[in-house]
Each structure stands twice: as structure tokens, then as C-alpha cells.
Structure prediction request, 1110 residues.
Amino acid sequence: MAKKKRKLKVIPLGGLGEIGKNITVFEYGDDIFVVDCGIAFPEDDMLGIDLVIPDISYLTKNREKVRGIVLTHGHEDHIGALPYVLKDLNVPVYGTKLTLGLLEQKLEEHGLLNNVVLNVVKHSDVIELGCFKVEFIRSTHSIADSTALAIFTPVGTIFHTGDFKIDYTPIEGEPIDLARLAELGKKGVLLLMCDSTNVEREGYTMSEKTVGETFDEIFMNAKNRILVATFASNVHRIQQIVNAAIKFGRKIAICGRSMVNVVNVAMELGYMNVPEGLIIDIDHINKYPPEKIVIITTGSQGEPMSALTRMASGDHKKVEIIPGDLVIISANPIPGNEKLVSRVVNDLFKKGAEVIYESLADIHVSGHASQEELKLIHRLIRPKYFMPVHGEYRHLKRHANLAVELGMSPENIFIMDIGKVLELTNDSAKINGSVNAGRVLVDGLGVGDVGNIVLRDRKHLSQDGLIVVVITIEGDTGNVIAGPDVISRGFVYVRESEDLMEEIREVCKAALQKCNDKKKNDWSTKKSIIRDALRDFLYERTKRRPMILPIIMEV
Amino acid sequence: MAKKKRKLKVIPLGGLGEIGKNITVFEYGDDIFVVDCGIAFPEDDMLGIDLVIPDISYLTKNREKVRGIVLTHGHEDHIGALPYVLKDLNVPVYGTKLTLGLLEQKLEEHGLLNNVVLNVVKHSDVIELGCFKVEFIRSTHSIADSTALAIFTPVGTIFHTGDFKIDYTPIEGEPIDLARLAELGKKGVLLLMCDSTNVEREGYTMSEKTVGETFDEIFMNAKNRILVATFASNVHRIQQIVNAAIKFGRKIAICGRSMVNVVNVAMELGYMNVPEGLIIDIDHINKYPPEKIVIITTGSQGEPMSALTRMASGDHKKVEIIPGDLVIISANPIPGNEKLVSRVVNDLFKKGAEVIYESLADIHVSGHASQEELKLIHRLIRPKYFMPVHGEYRHLKRHANLAVELGMSPENIFIMDIGKVLELTNDSAKINGSVNAGRVLVDGLGVGDVGNIVLRDRKHLSQDGLIVVVITIEGDTGNVIAGPDVISRGFVYVRESEDLMEEIREVCKAALQKCNDKKKNDWSTKKSIIRDALRDFLYERTKRRPMILPIIMEV
Prediction:
């Protein structure tokens, strides 16, 4: 009897059917390795949640098999969960210099730096992780030092793009290594895993360099202070601001904690080229005339606590917006942040600043490949099987459609959910079973202690507030000896609703009387009768449904 | 001595520096009239609020002067506050037939229909309101029967565009009456008040008719059921769906309460042309083959309770999405709704539907004028003074910039806040003083009973939940005879946090002990000592700040 073929398993634990928390497991026999380990930002209904990390219980259950974690680039949605995950699963981490430089900072903040093995790789390096070989291939994205991965497995080669665009004129170093992609494609690729973020956009994504040209034009005509808000991690963007500042004789001040951190790391590691003395302390900006200053700041997404938002609302300690300031928001709002950004723009205009934002000039380009770039990748790699990754369902679906248009057979394309297992041999692929996958919510110091019940209660409280009714009864007789006292929060403005509060007490008393009449004396029955009576009364009176908490104290 | 010149006052009570709740007051001597009276949708931080209406205390204080309310068109942000306002300020209302037809429905729902005087006007009609004459001028917008207004006042003519675009090929009736605008401009206009919504868009807004052409193309190629989601109020859009259905032999079913209502009103009043028998009952859709059916539905904004959202999530009672269904979302997401719409698109794709949405085809056009249309209005009206209206501050500011580019002097342009008073004579204009203006929050049956304190509490509860601590003490001795009992909601999952709950009780006991030691026996001191102790303990342990409610019962 022929030996049963062993199979390769590819298991996305995040990043499919959602934006963020990218993480994928590759497993063959006794070997597992992981690509990326990112966070997602909380959805609107995750009230009070700080961030979301992937459920990695599948990995901790198989911890003896896990050979390492490979990182494609240093964005939060690809490395941000590591400080949480490495506490539980301490395995070697591999990534390029800047990626690990950014990770180091995070680990240091979490007090983890000394416990973790970080292995710096260069482009074209090949590492071995059990039976896997992983080659790092130069790529281009909205952060420096990003890589694509060729993963050589016992059943064939997998090509994983990571997040990417095809930028023929990157700011630093070489463009994406198309020759190597072509070579891999020629030798035969079993599975392509390709970024789907911008699959809805026609044509090509513009080169990062075009933004620099816009900066030059703006800087040339500016007569006052310039402030530029952008993503802290976009080192190339920041370099272009630096270049424009040099060209037009301005000093640079850096504002916002993450901006300061990233610029420091990038300069230390040689990813930015900044002449001595160009960067000045933010405390010294007023020593220079306005036309000699550029301030680079966080807050391009209108985040409420960010530097730019504070400047716009007049709450920033070091920078005050003055009429004539020119503010450039060099970013597009991430879906969900549109109103936050809009508020900042309004506030800046009100303070007399000029504001250049998305609808006004080419001051931002995306870091993700548009349709024509995706087509190029598909044509070069010519995979047998295809799994669209990094995107909501609609992106994955449309990326699948694009592959079909390019001639792939639909049965060779796998739109996956997180936790689903794709099993591959050298001549077959199918979805077979699933493993634990999902989200773990981080709230303050708590990791995973806020679940659906807590969120449901927060939602309920946020909509109509709360009524607490407290009654003290005598244990022996069941007689009420204090209360009902009524406390409300987030329901109505109490001072103007004293009559309503009095009525609430009456409703409680009547409900209690009913309990006594019917000899319903156990506490939980009493509580539920009070709750029902109050709920009906309040809905009738106000058409609102506050949370009702009856509390009975026995003495 | 010369008699002091009387002045015209123009006072926006809403719609400037914000999107929605449009309302403007015109006052001269003892005469006041009002243009529009709309709602705004709650901002993200107005938790639990249903809608926002303008503060009209300035009008109720001057109620004997108010001659009437003039409506420009039937959108919620122009008529939606009337059911609340007319209860308090019952004055005659003037508007075109469809506008008042839509208003009638609202008033009926609020049981107000019999108490209100509604006066139907036609385009070119002139009405008198005290010393004012108001002429209704045909306009085009994303709802039928919209009007601009020429307001003849003792100090000069005001031209108010209302919401508008310049559509040379409207679906029904004549285009906007440019000849009359030119004539007014030639005779001299003192003040232009012009819609600023789309001032950030270059060029021209496309004609509504272009959407019909896209529908035709899509319908021609569709082989299965078609569902179209759009704004219920866009009667012309719905008419174009009807036209395509007729052309390609499909029956129509209507879904969603507001869609049914508007179609009924529009058909009754002659604004839609629908052949007998074309519309079928939603219960009968399965009697026809899929290629013979179009379903027109609400939910184009992904509103959680809307028909399309329910269909997408499988919760709709009458319509189940089946693979092959073609869903057209004929609308753009209003800022803030992007993620809701995205979720619906994902869910529809998952159910096997094809979905055509904003990034895919020309299935929607805006109802507001872009830059070139605005320029045409400015050139035709040639006003002495200009007040940009309908927009956030950035829109107003950029509209002002556009007017300056067209040659207006900046001192003749007034960017106003709501409540500010613009005083005009026939040769002067200045901002002089202000009146009460603002927002009134509607939550369930409550109008204005939810204010900042209630919202702040809802926000607090939504972020970290709540801890209630109840203690019963003996009045005479101050001894604790029951408790502390701890109840938490929305904080942590209690079953997994029993240790924490026990620690909370210990912290309370220690705090109480401290009170006794220091002889601090008044309740409010005790409560605040407990609250502080718990707050510090919980932040240290969890980095969260739940609301803490200490309750002391005395027996």
C-alpha cells in the first residue's frame, strides 16, 4: 500500500474577512512557522476596547512545533500583537532591520526585550525553519524594508506578497525584485497568497515619489509655517518632507510620541538621511521665523489624543496654530475615521490655518497595489492555486474574480475564513476542517477578559443609561426597612426629573407589594418582578430602555 | 435728525458649521419668517440619541412676529424638525406639493395633521409674509419639486439657493430656472445664500439622467433578480428604476417602510409615472421567475434596522438573498456610514449575490452643485454680499475662497456661526450680536431631557462599565450590618473575576474602616472615600476607569 501523502496546511488566523490582525500559519508534519502577527483596531461596537489581537490558541496547543515567526514589514497590523503573543509563545522572530527595529521599541515598552530572540535578515536571505525554507524578497510598500516571501515547502513553493505596491521609483533602494518573481514563476509556484486591499481600484497606484513633487511645489510657494501630518511609520514620506525642508531652507521639528520614536529608529538604522542640525527641538520653534520651520506631526487620522488634533483644538502644550499656518494632511482617512479627520480640518480652518487635505492635492498615495499591479503579479507568478489575503470579504471576492478574468479556474481559487485549513499536496488543494481562530480583546491591562456579555452591557449602558434600585429588607419578616432608593446615570437629567424618580419609587413599592401578596419571597423572583415592572413603566413613559439593576440587601 | 435706518436681520439657527438641521430666520421690524426646519443625525459622541433638532427659543420668544415657515424641499434635514417645532410654534407652512405631501405623512405619524395649516405653492408663485415677499423658483436637486427662493425685503433682494444642483436634463419637468436667476441678478441682489455641500468637488455634478443610462445597461445584462437600494426620497431615481423595469419586462416590489410611504405619496401626487399592475406585493415575489423581478429597497446607508441590512444578514421576513441576485447600491455612503455600508456589501457577497456599489459603476450622482455650477450661480446672481450656507466650516470657508476668486471682496463675504446675526441695509452688512441657537437632542419621547451630563455618563459607562457597591449601616452606631455587596456591569466578565470582586469588597471595607478611624461619618464623605479608594485600586490593577457608584443604606 502506498504511503499516505503528507499534506501542507496553510491556516490564516487573521487578516481575511477583516482589515488587520494579519497572521498565517504554515504547517507540515511536526513543523509550524508563522507569517506576521498584527493587531486590528476595534470595531465601532467594541466599546472601550483598546485593540484586538488574534486568538493563537492553535499555536499554543502546538507550541513544541512552532519554529519561528517571520515578519513581512513593521506596520501595526503585522507586528503589533507580538508583545502579547510572545509572552505566551516565545519563539525566534525573523525580519528585516527596520521591521525589527520598530518591534524592539514595542517590546521594550512591554518590558520584554531581553527575553526574545530577534534575527535580522536581509533581502535575498534564505532561512530554514524545520522543513521550510523562507526567502526574503525585496518589495515596496508604505513603509521601508518590506518584503515578500518565497516559502519552499516539501510539496512546492508558496509566494506570499505581504502588503505591497509596485513602485518603480521608490525613495530609497531598489524597486520590488520583479526578476526574482519571474524566476519563481517560471520554476513553478504552487500557491499565491496576494494582498487584496486595493483590488477595487483600477489602474496603478502612484509612486511615492509623486508626493515629493507635490511637497516641493507646496514648499516653494509657502510663505509661513508648514505643518505636515502623516503616518509615523511612513519613513519614505518623512524623508521626502526632510528633502523639501532642506531644499527650501527650513528647519524641522518633530511632534507626537510615535513620530519621534520612528524617526529615531529610522535614523539610527540608516533608513533616513538627515543632515546634522536640521532637526530642532520642538521647544525652540519660536526662535525661528515661521517661513523657516516645518513641523512633522502625528494625527493624520484625527485621532482624538494625537498631536495635530490637540493643536487644532488649542490643547497642545508646545504648538499653537497661528493664522497663516499651512497644514498638510498627507494621508487618506482610514474607513471609519472620516468624521474625525473632518473635525480636525474644520478646527484648523477656524484657527485661520490653510489646510491641504485629500480633496485638494496629490499629497498622499496608497501603499497597496491596484488592479493592474495585481495582474502583473498573477502573470509573473503563474500559480497553480490562489488564496487572496488581506482584505474584507468583498476584497477577497473581487480579487478572486480578477484571477478568474486572468484565466484561473474558479476551483483553484480559495476564499478562506480565518481558522479554515487549506490542505495542499504537490497536485491538490482543498479546504479541510478548521481550527480555533478569532479575536481577543485588549482593554487596559486585560487581555481577553472582556467578552460578548461585557460588550453587550456597555452597549446597553451607552444607549439609555442605568437605573439602580436598592431596597433593604428585614431577613426574618421580609419587611422593607430602607428604600427603595433610586440612582440613575445616563438616563435623564435627574434634577429636572424628580417627579419621574418619585414615580419610579412608587412602581417599585407596588411591585414589592405584589410579591408579598403572592408570597413570592425569594430574592431573584422579587428582583425580576421589580425589573419587569420598571422596564414596562419606563418604556411607556419615555420609550427608552435603561439597564435596570434592582439590589436587595437583607439585614 | 435723520430717522435711524431699520435693518434686516438674517439669522441662521442651524445648517452652518454642521451638516443638517437647516433653518434660517429673516427678520425686519415686527415680521419674521423662517426658511426650512430640519433635523441632524446624532454625532458619534451623542450616545443613544435618536435625532437632533434646532433650538428655536429665539422664535418662541418672538412668536407673535413669526408669519410662517417656507420650505425649499422635502428632505429630512430641511423638514424633519417640524413635527417637534410646530407643537410649540404653530404657524402656517408653505411649500411645493411633494414637499408638503412628505411633511403631511410625518405630521400624521405625530398626530398633528389637523392642527397645522399647510399652503401648497407652485414654482413662480409669490407669497407675502408681513413685509416680505417670497418667490419660489424652480430648482433641481436629488428630490423632486425643490425650489430656490427670491426673498424681497424692504432693504433689497436675497437669493437663497436651497439645496441644489444644475441639472440640464432632469427626469421630470423643467430644469432650474436660470433665466429668472439672470433677471434677478440684473435687477440687483443684496445677498446670496448658496449651498456649499459640494464646494470641494471640481467640475460639474452629473445629471440624474446618467444614472438611468447605467440602470439600462445593467438591467439589459442581468439574468437574475435585481435589488436596488436607494434613498426613499429620491423620487426621480425610483422613477428611473421603474423605467428600466418596464423596458426590460420586470415587475417591481417595494421594501422598507419609508420607501413604501414615499412611493405612495409620489404616485398619489403625480410625481411618479407607474403603469397599473407594475408594482406587485412583496409577498408575491416568489410567484415570478427571478429575471422578472426588481425589488426597490431602503438601506443604501447600511442602517442597522433597514430592509437591505436585514436581507444581507438573513433577518428579513419577506426577502431572502439567493445566489445570483444582483444588488445595486445606488447611493454613496454619507460620511460616518462607510463601515456600515461595507458590512452590508460583505454580507451580500457572502450570500452569493453580485453587488454593484460606489467603486464599481456610475450608479449614483450627487444632488449638490460642484464648483463650476457654483460659479455659474455667483456670476448670474452677482450679489453685493454673500453668505455661504449648508456645510461644515471647511465647506463655508472654501466657498468663501471661491467667491473671492470670482472677484468678490472678502469684506463682503460672511462666514457665519449659527445664532450670529447678519444685519443688512440696502448698502451695508455686518455681523452684529447673536441670539440663542444650538441643538436639542431627541431620545425616545424625550425632547431636550438629555444634556451634556447624561451624555458624559453614557460615554463613561460605554468605555469601562460600572461598579455598584452597596452597604447597609445602622443609623445609630454607623456599624456595617450588610454588605459591601458588589455588582458590576460592562467592566469584566464576573465569573472569571471572582478574586477581583473579593478584593473590591476588601478595599471597600478598608476604606470604611478608615472613615470610622478618622470619624468621618457623613455619607457623602464616606462615599467619596470609597470611590477614590476603589478608583485607584482598579486603575492600578486593570488600567480601566469604570464608573463607581457607592450606595449607603441606613436602617
